[in-house]
């Protein structure tokens, strides 16, 4: 779903709006209707941020919800999002996992860091080193390659990663999880 959203949403879409879009896409029913509990949005620190909703509405991706109604209800305008595999039950489990992506779950962190950790977690099989391209990583994180480098540095600073490296010849990014997380 991250890959799909990386191409479906405009490149300028912020990381916080991408996290919100991910939750909406994973929680949508077969008709594109989404119900988001207030607690979920508060926990993600996205409820009061109207700019994110406007960003996604301006991109033609969803209808603006009635912010007075709880739970928040909206409709996705991008019909292709509903065709994405896997099915609804697996998407619901993925929506819960996306809130705390093991092995790179971050406690309360900025949306940009949380999205970067989520992207890395989706590319983290059991081996210690991984190698997606920097351009792919940057697109999925909703940033430029330079900003993505800074995010990776911050993930090392927070202890979420023990190290990372960018091979400029192959454009691959390698990272290592701290020993306690492997």
Characterize this entry briefly.
With 182 residues, the protein is mostly helical. Helices cover 44% and strands 10% of the residues.
Structure description:
Strands 1-2 form a two-stranded antiparallel ribbon. It starts with a helix and ends in a 6-residue tail after the last strand. The protein has 2 domains: 98 residues; 71 residues, Arc Repressor Mutant, subunit A, CATH 1.10.10. The protein contains 8 helices and 4 strands; from the N terminus they run ααβααβααααββ. α2 crosses α4 and α2 packs across α6. The longest helix has 13 residues. It is mainly α. β3 and β4 form a beta hairpin.
Query: Would you identify the regions where 5 or more consecutive residues have pLDDT less than 50?
Result: none
User: What number of domains?
Assistant: 2
So how many helices? 8
Helix % is 40-55%
- Oligomeric nature of the chains: single chain
SSE series: HHEHHEHHHHEE
Strand portion: 5-15%
Task: Report mean pLDDT, rounded to a whole number.
Answer: 83
Distance between the termini: 25 Å
Task: Provide keyphrases for this structure.
mainly alpha; two-stranded antiparallel ribbon; 182 residues; Arc Repressor Mutant, subunit A; 2 domains
Write the layout of secondary structure elements.
Blueprint: H1 2-8, H2 15-27, E1 33-36, H3 38-43, H4 50-58, E2 72-75, H5 88-99, H6 111-122, H7 134-141, H8 145-157, E3 163-167, E4 172-176
Antiparallel strand pairs: 1-2, 3-4
Helix pairs in contact: 2-4, 2-5, 2-6, 6-8, 7-8
